[in-house]
Design a protein that fits this description.
The chain is α+β, with helices and mostly antiparallel strands. The protein is built from 3 helices and 3 strands, in the order αβββαα. It has a 3-stranded antiparallel β-sheet. β1 and β2 form a beta hairpin. α1 crosses α2. The chain is globular and about 55 Å long. The mean pLDDT is 80.
Amino acid sequence: MRTEERCRRQARALVLALEYGGKGKPAFVYSDVGALRYFAIGHRPADGSAFRCATCTALMRSENPGLDADRAFEVFEQVLLQHPQEFWKGRVMTDEDFAQRHRKEEIAT
């Protein structure tokens, strides 16, 4: 699978997890704090109340904010895969794990 496609799928998984339960619109915020760039992902409730953080990370700030955002998303994707309860009550499987499980089920039938 191409990297761009994998990134789109992972970003979509984050959005779906954040939208789960009608908590509000997914949101990604950042701020520079000294030599660090702080990123948070969560949602803005539909009632207009304040941003609610699901998880956050701080990275060494580079000269490229887009690259820093990509690195932050990689962190959030790992949190989603390893600790999905930070985002929702469901479970998350990688495409590779899903395909492997599906092959095993086909072989068993």
